[in-house]
Write a structure and sequence with these properties.
By secondary structure, the protein is α+β, with helices and mostly antiparallel strands. Helices cover 45% and strands 17% of the residues. It has three domains: 3-138, Dynein light chain 2a, cytoplasmic (Beta-Lactamase, 2-Layer Sandwich); 149-265, Beta-Lactamase (2-Layer Sandwich), CATH 3.30.450; 271-481.
């Protein structure tokens, strides 16, 4: 794999800022130079504030989806935006490696005598250096997504018939996708300006991640297509890809779907550091969760579907609790925040933080009303009213006293059955509403365990917005206990 692909998964942006806040260079090249220069001034002000008020250099700022690290070198500062998938420990190692390795690039230089072109050359040398690639792969970050094929097309959504304007017209898949959007044009998310989700296409043994950007009369569609044997991997990444799509669409003046699809195909799947951490907890059985969380089974449905949950208390305990709960969330990649410090953005999955930090966020109005919050000191949780799911309660009960590795395997295998049904359910979107509901009703009847079907339905709703608008019309009995 080309090193740019490896690096771009972790290093989202790299900047070189001169003393006083002048932005000398930035990768990728900014589309808005004024905004870029303004950000340089803001970064400089943040660093000055930290030094004057706290009498120390600021090292990093943490947000829900990324961290910003600062590496001061003589008259310069390297600023890097790093993916939130990098753990706190690995972020510290990355900062130290930057600090040691980049000094050589600035020997004999000062900010007054460095031109823009020379600054850009230095930043490019750093970004494409062997040491940066070796550092990142050494931390366990190696593989981008799995994009086998990417297609971008344009069609007219005012017509209820297949009406392709631009793009390849040699595939039944394209026609199926456009017709699917037309099927759900009344009740579905086509009314919104953008949406994205996962679809199985059993007839051609493929799975796709589909992005739909809607204009006034025409729509742009982007597809990442993988063979069915990689469907579960694509499903796992769908939530992260949806978040990336939302952020790109909302923060980009003129969204470029070709560019977005390339970014999505490079989203990485695996954090080796997580496996290392699990290995260190091997002796601790999952029943330890009951020492810090009353009614663990009520939290598990939230983890399975990737909802936001706060975990509050001592850092070491919080970290262990998050790692334990994550066994029930390995089928879906969600950007957990193991320990929130400098930032004020709560993660989209599990977020660990101190009581002091929680009070600070509540005082600032940063904690949404009803958000579930686990207090590991009192073992209680508050927020919206949640209930236990029978299937998950029994799964936790049967695995909590087993060796950690054995428990992990049992949980993973049982949840894979749920995910397999959910993936199949997404393929029903290719049918008109009446047929779609009939197929879901048949699936519910074949499963018989309503608590399992509830999880399947919840997962389908998350990964497939085209079904979400109608799926609740399936008749359900009581599935909670």
């Amino acid at each position: 794999m080309h090193k740019d692909s490896i690096i771009s998964n972790l290093i989202l942006k790299l900047q070189l800022v001169a003393l006083g806040g002048l932005m000398l260079a930035e990768l990728p090249e900014p589309t808005d130079q004024t905004r870029s220069q303004l950000s340089g001034g803001i970064m400089s002000a943040i660093m000055s504030f930290s030094k004057e008020v706290h009498n120390k250099e600021i090292e990093a700022l943490s947000y829900a989806d990324r961290s910003i690290i600062f590496i001061p070198i003589n008259d310069f500062t390297i600023v890097a935006e790093v993916s939130s998938t990098v753990s706190k420990e690995n972020l510290t190692r990355l900062i130290e490696e930057f600090r040691v390795r980049t000094e050589l690039y600035f020997i004999g230089l000062n900010s007054d005598g460095l031109g823009v072109s020379e600054a850009e050359q230095i930043l490019n040398q750093i970004y494409r250096s062997d040491w940066l690639e070796e550092t990142i792969t050494g931390l366990g970050y190696q593989r981008p997504l799995i994009g086998e094929e990417r297609i971008v097309i344009k069609f007219n959504h005012q017509s209820l018939e297949y009406n392709l304007i631009e793009g390849p017209d040699n595939s039944d898949l394209i026609k199926k996708v456009i017709n699917m959007i037309n099927f759900h044009s009344i009740d579905g998310p086509v009314k919104e300006d953008h949406c994205a989700g996962f679809l199985m296409v059993p007839t051609i043994r493929k799975a796709i991640f589909l992005v739909h950007f809607k204009g006034e009369t025409n729509s742009d569609l982007g597809l990442i297509i993988v063979p069915s044997e990689k469907a579960s991997k694509l499903f796992r990444l769908t939530h992260m890809m949806q978040l990336e799509t939302d952020q790109y669409h909302d923060n980009t003046k003129n969204p470029d779907l070709v560019k977005l699809m390339k970014q999505l195909s490079q989203i990485r799947d695996h954090d080796a550091e997580y496996d290392e951490k699990l290995a260190s907890l091997e002796a601790k059985k999952l029943n330890f969760l009951e020492d810090y969380v009353k009614d663990v089974d009520k939290i598990l449905p939230q983890v399975v579907v990737g909802n936001s949950v706060l975990v509050v208390g001592d850092e070491e305990i919080v970290d262990e609790v998050i790692m334990g709960l994550h066994h029930f969330g390995e089928h879906i990649v969600v950007p957990h925040i193991r320990w929130l410090t400098g930032g004020d953005e709560i993660g989209n999955g599990l977020t660990g933080l101190s009581h002091t930090k929680l009070k600070e966020l509540k005082d600032a109005g940063k904690v949404p009303e009803g958000m579930i919050c686990i207090d590991t000191d009192s073992k209680k949780f508050d927020g919206q009213k949640i209930k236990s799911n029978k299937f998950l309660k029994e799964l936790f009960k049967s695995s909590k006293n087993l060796p950690r590795a054995q428990a992990s395997e049992i949980i993973k295998n049982q949840l894979y059955i749920i995910v397999s049904f959910a993936m199949t359910g997404t393929s029903y979107a290719f049918n008109p509403k009446s047929e779609l509901l009939s197929l879901l009703q048949d699936m519910k009847g074949s499963i018989k365990d309503n608590s399992q079907y509830e999880l399947i339905q919840n997962l389908i709703e998350i990964v497939n917005p085209w079904i979400k608008a109608v799926i609740n019309e399936v008749t359900l009995d009581d599935v909670w206990i």
